[in-house]
Amino acid sequence: MTSFLRSREAILAAAILALLVLISSRFPAFVEPGNLARVFTDTSPLILLALGQTVVILTRCIDLSVAANLALTGMVCAMLNAAYPGVPVAVILILALGMGAVMGMINGLMVWKLKIPPIVVTLGTMTIYRGLIFVLSGGAWVNAHEMSAAFTGFPRVDILGLPVLAWIAILVTGLFFLGIARTPLGRAFYAVGGNPHAAVYTGIDVGRTQFMAFTISGMLAGLTGYLWVARYSVAYVDIAGGFELEVVAACVIGGISIAGGAGTILGTLLGALFLGIVKNALPVVDISPFWQLAISGTAIIVAVAFNSRSGRSKGRIILKRAEGHA
Amino acid sequence: MTDIADHQQAPRRIPDRLQGPGARLLKSWELLLFLVAVAIFTANSFASPYFLNAWNLSDATFNFTEKAMIAFAMALLIIAGEIDLSVASIIALCSTAMGAAVQYGAGTPELVLIGLVTGLACGAFNAVLVTKMGLPSIVVTIGTMSLFRGISYIVLGDGAYRGYPAEFAYFGQGYVFWVISFEFVLFALLAVLYYVLLHRTNFGRMVYAIGNNATAASFSGIRVARVKFILFLLTGLMSGIAAICLTSRLGSTRPSIAFGWELEVVTMVVLGGVSILGGSGSIPGVVIAAFVMGLVTFGLGLLNVPGIVMSIFIGLLLIGVIALPRLWAMWRH
Amino acid sequence: KGAEEAAKELGNVEVIYTGPTDTTAEGQIEVINSLIAQNVDAIAVSANDTDALVPALKKAMQRGITVISWDSGVAPEGRQLHLNPSSNPLIGNMIIKLAADNLPEGGKVAVLSATTTSTNQNIWIEEMNKVMGNYPGIEVVGTVYGDDLADKSYREAQGLMQTYPDLDAIIAPTSVGIVAAARAVEDAGKVGQVNVTGLGLPSEMAGAIESGASKSFAIWNPIDLGYSATYLAYELATGDAEAAPGAEIPMGRMGKLTLDDNNEGAMADPFVYDESNIDEFKSIF
Amino acid sequence: MQVSLTTPPVAHVTADAAPVLRLEGITKTFPGVKALDGVTLELYPGQVTALVGENGAGKSTIVKTLTGIYQPDGGTISLGGAPVHFATAQDATAAGITAIHQETVLFDELSVAENIFIGHAPRTRFGLIDWPKMRRDAQEILSRIDADLDPDMPLRELGIASKHLVAIARALSVDARVVIMDEPTAALSHKEIEELYELVERMRAEGRAILFISHKFDEIFRIADRYTVFRDGQHVGSGLISEVDEAELVRLMVGRSVDQIFPQRAHNIGDEVLKVVGYAHPTEFDEINFTLRRGEILGFYGLVGAGRSELMQALFGVTKPSKGAVRIDGQVRVIRSPAEAVENGIVYVPEDRGRQGAVIGLPIFQNVTLPSLAQTSRHGFLRLSEEFALAREYTERLDLRAAALDQDVGTLSGGNQQKVVIAKWLATKPKVIILDEPTKGIDIGSKAAVHGFMAELAAQGLSVIMVSSEIPEVLGMSDRVIVMREGLIAAELEGEALTPENLVRHAAGIGARP
Ligand SMILES: Nc1ncnc2c1ncn2[C@@H]1O[C@H](COP(=O)(O)OP(=O)(O)OP(=O)(O)O)[C@@H](O)[C@H]1O
Ligand SMILES: Nc1ncnc2c1ncn2[C@@H]1O[C@H](COP(=O)(O)OP(=O)(O)OP(=O)(O)O)[C@@H](O)[C@H]1O
Ligand SMILES: [Mg+2]
Ligand SMILES: [Mg+2]
């Protein structure tokens, strides 16, 4: 327990609480349960993508293509719905997951089999996926009236006071808690990122594990693609432009080490919520939205400086008599 | 060839080089890239009747000169094993600082000075975080990327600075001689300077050593942190110079200026044969890559291909040039 | 679409339509440069930055190319004339009137504007503020920016409803913003309490009218706009007309454009859409 | 010593016992090194086989081959008579072979329990990892080796010795027929070592086959039943431990007499060059005092992990000492970075050649001139002809074998890389050269060359500090030897006192234990 209180997650949670207290002191309406639920719903896409990015970063990679993957999958879903309004949402969901996963696999294969650095691979696929949206849609928008009610309605169906979008984020977060803690693959992400050399000694295939991470990240990006397009009832080339950096920022603020192998799902969740609350609070507390960028930039720098300080390893001790004091 | 002959006469003598300069050139990335550039140039001149026109080609250079200036410094930084993703945001901040100075009646010399100093200051900020505090540069500069542009947004909001002095327009719109623009001359000059710096000085050698193995470089008596500090400063300075040119070319400043350029600059550097993992790459490679990207975008522009479709080509080019040799090697195995 | 119609009428015109794929000024300059290189006769541009395109467009004019701007304008030195879809005072008045018409007792309204680099919205809001005196009881409580991004606009609209729980209307003089605001109102369950109005496309707003989130909104006809812009560019490029203050330039079926001191002219009044006519137009544009 | 207690009952060691594991003709080549050259190894159930050999003899390589980490280039492995092939580490574990590797192969961010079970964690019915069971099992294994560790503790919070216990627990978490231990006692304290011995006893009684790799003869003679000796990647002998003595093992290991191979040299030692006074570091070393004179070779002996490398790196400015001073030619100097050390004439040839020594990726000549750029350049501009000249001068003096000077240093064999690193330093004309394990992983021929020019350097008036774990090398080369143990200077030996027994005694702390 005491070790939890000293952990990054606890400090981040405290920072979020402080933030909420600060906002509520001026705008009590912000912390009303209904509004907090709205903020959570609004942050759900960020949470989903950040979870996927987390496993990628854990394995010492980075996925810059998530936002483009989201947009492409979203556009395909929207166009499919516009052309065949009768296709059930379940099929669209499967399509979104599958398409996203395939795009993630393309990234993963190039990292695994061709050993191309992840940042180069995903920088390239980021522009390619984004460009494909234009090629597919010819630059045209798919608008609300072209989408079926079932299509746009799905993420906002209300279950126990929360929309489906929020429930999906909760469900996926739950799955991640379970999957990371309780499956061999989940533990392999840590092993591969923390000590790739040693991972080989325990029979873990480093490249394959990285491939799996990219696949998961892509799959979530695809899922979010459909949800995003349905929620805002519009699909066009630029949706979620630049979102990949916000996703990486959420992970970094959540304490996921960019060097791999360190960080928790709880941290990512809190990092995403932190950004989500800041984003939603700015218009409410009447700080110009133009401050948002500088605030998240500062948060990233503070978080990374803080994490490197607390994460410094003690190293080994040769002097036997010094061992007791250290 | 003569070297090997020497070797046979005096068995213990180790030749300087295994291959002559010609053989080395033949195997170089730069030559491959140069051929790609020539191919694109030829294809363009067939595809569009407007391509082979001095003024048009001159206009086309504006598509890459400013980005390439940053790419030179970025190349050194990436060779040394670091990266700076905040360059485009530094442009925004420099431009904002200059725009603010205009409102106080600053003249052209002051503006240039302010642009350069702001760039240096941003570079120094990154440098301190990375070299003094030991933070990973990719995360730090994702942070400062938001921070620097964020400051521009705070200052400018949805407003814009305009009213730059008439002489100031020279940097981005002036021509030195006939169709040769000031920006192109500056680009060429910087290319030569960076070529000399990276390939002909002790400093450049240290950059390579650090990128290949920073620990061993440090164990060889190189002041690694100092070299990296200078590289971040240089990148900031180049962003300042690019900010001057771009602001001059646009004649106004908005916080969204140069949005997304950091990735284009990195793409240019990687396409130029610089290993993203550090340790190898060359300035001629980056220069040719700048031309390749400029030619591709201009050529496709003449065919009225939308910008976003061009980016598919750039993305494919980036992955393709790295993947194809590896696929080839795998296939031959 | 309107541009092609005009081209067909005029006969000897070829329309090259590029964009709107470049959202940055730097990208638009590259496009303009490639158009200059192709020796086009006229460029009709809808700018996303008033000032940044000026040097490039000046260069185009120096090389004998006719340059006009339409919809979202360029500073006067960067074009020969500017075609406003409608006159700015009219739009400014229209958007507040739409809100006020549904608030006979007065009330609180907020503005959800668009991107930070387009000038239209600011001019309209300025014009709107000028005529506020004509609408007693209507109070504009705040202006926020959605950057013409669906998600950001949505969030800003949500923020407005929280900050001002008794908000009566949101005015969004942007087609992205108005759709997002209507969504936000629907999701917040405030249909009937908060009326969304402003400028939007019938095709995108049909759903909002149906649900009641928006009672009415206005827009000009974009097809007519493209048509007019093409016609004007043609007239100037062929030398049949000259852009000077006070000049009247024909634009086919849309009548004539009269230029003011800034060489600007307005095409037509915005048209109001509500549940009575939305079905008729939603499939057209 | 309690040798009598652990002398194995003769009944165990009958000649007709069938080996459970048999390796035959195993060959493994790395770029530049033939690590294993057709070796044979047999392990018997219920017996401990000691594998001995000098550093670099190929002991760890055979362990990795046996556990699926390396694939052998040739030869066969048979388990219980049937040939087997291990593609991954998991295959070997599944076949009942488990190992404590020499290097720590653990994960700092994972908990103790997980480090023990990663790769073969207990699962629930739904295929999920069963944490409660994993914790309980971990606790049980840890208590079996008397390790008082919390299974939930993150590994990064443990010291090196505790980490080693976790590694041991990991090996025991598999119900294995064959247990391999690669220098398991190197990082353990006296008490933990005793417990480990008991554990080995128990496993032997349970009928498991144990391969035990160690450099410590006392423990080999205490717990092993059989021995196998490797030398330079070859199998040079094996048999029952009861049938050999220490001298015979050493003869097999070294394969040559000491004075035969080391160069004769004139001992003309001059004035004091370096004096280290009261050097200390919070966790690595303390109370370090010694002097070094011109033309002298000062040996530093100790068991691996005694802190010699850390001390040398502090002298070279890599780490900062907390107290103490250095005098060079009588003057106090402050050395805060390697750059300053080089300026003061102290240079360091590191032990970890690939990471700290050669800049792999740069050509040979650039490696050589890296610290001497000020000399070869003019106004900061490179002069390639000067560089080639300098590089040629020193590499030829060291008899470097390379195709050309612009060859990537990474393509050279270990010994030749070492020569490049040394050439790099000689070109700076230093006063003191520190060589950390200069012949580690180098073949015999190159070793002789390295020894030859060390002698030459000293003869030319250079002062040499040589850190080495090889007794013959220390005895054969040094004028004087300092023995370190656990971060302290245990003894300074010279002349008559320089005997293998003395070195081992001081290094291991026998008879000196408080
Ligand atoms: N991955 C590798 N790449 C290249 N060479 C290697 C590699 N692993 C081992 N070697 C070389 O193979 C030889 C045998 O090494 P090995 O680690 O098996 O020795 P060892 O007997 O375990 O020595 P020690 O007693 O120091 O542990 C050495 O020359 C070493 O440098
Ligand atoms: N942080 C660490 N965790 C685990 N093992 C380590 C760590 N640092 C070093 N070692 C191991 O300790 C051993 C050597 O330690 P060190 O170099 O300090 O001792 P030394 O007395 O100089 O011995 P030698 O020079 O003979 O290796 C190496 O085998 C190395 O792998
Ligand atoms: Mg070993
Ligand atoms: Mg050592």
UniProtKB/TrEMBL annotation, chain A:
InterPro entries per UniProt: ABC_transp_permease
Main location: membrane
Pfam families reported in the protein's UniProt record: BPD_transp_2
GO cellular component, one term: plasma membrane
Entries under CDD domains matching the protein: TM_PBP1_transp_AraH_like (cd06579)
Keywords from the named record: Cell membrane, Membrane, Transmembrane, Transmembrane helix
Subcellular location: Cell membrane
TM segment ranges: 90-112, 119-142, 162-181, 210-229, 250-278, 290-308
Protein topology in the membrane: Multi-pass membrane protein
GO molecular function terms listed in the Swiss-Prot or TrEMBL record: transmembrane transporter activity
Domain of life, per lineage: Bacteria
Name of the molecule in the record: ABC transporter permease
Gene source species: Alloyangia mangrovi
UniProtKB/TrEMBL annotation, chain B:
Residue intervals passing through the bilayer: 31-52, 112-131, 138-156, 176-197, 229-251, 257-278, 308-329
Claim: Transmembrane helix is one of the keywords in the record: yes
Cell compartments where the protein resides: Cell membrane
Keywords, ordered alphabetically: Cell inner membrane, Cell membrane, Membrane, Transmembrane, Transmembrane helix, Transport
The UniProt record lists the keyword Hydrolase: no
GO CC annotation: plasma membrane
InterPro entries, per the entry: ABC_transp_permease
Record note on quaternary structure: The complex is composed of two ATP-binding proteins (LsrA), two transmembrane proteins (LsrC and LsrD) and a solute-binding protein (LsrB).
Protein name stated in the entry: Autoinducer 2 import system permease protein LsrD
Protein source organism: Alloyangia mangrovi
TrEMBL record, chain D:
ATP-binding is among the record's keywords: yes
Compartment(s): Cell membrane
GO cellular component: plasma membrane
Pfam family, one: ABC_tran
Keywords: ATP-binding, Cell membrane, Membrane, Nucleotide-binding, Repeat, Sugar transport, Translocase, Transport
CDD domains (alphabetical): ABC_Carb_Monos_I (cd03216), ABC_Carb_Monos_II (cd03215)
PROSITE patterns documented for this protein: ABC_TRANSPORTER_1, ABC_TRANSPORTER_2
Signal peptide coordinates: none
This protein's record includes keyword Nucleotide-binding: yes
Residues covered by the ABC transporter domain: 21-257, 264-511
Topology of this chain in the membrane: Peripheral membrane protein
InterPro entries: AAA+_ATPase (IPR003593), ABC_carbohydrate_import_ATPase (IPR050107), ABC_transporter-like_ATP-bd (IPR003439), ABC_transporter-like_CS (IPR017871), P-loop_NTPase (IPR027417)
Entry's Gene Ontology molecular function annotations: ATP binding; ATP hydrolysis activity
Protein name according to UniProt: D-xylose ABC transporter ATP-binding protein
Organism: Alloyangia mangrovi
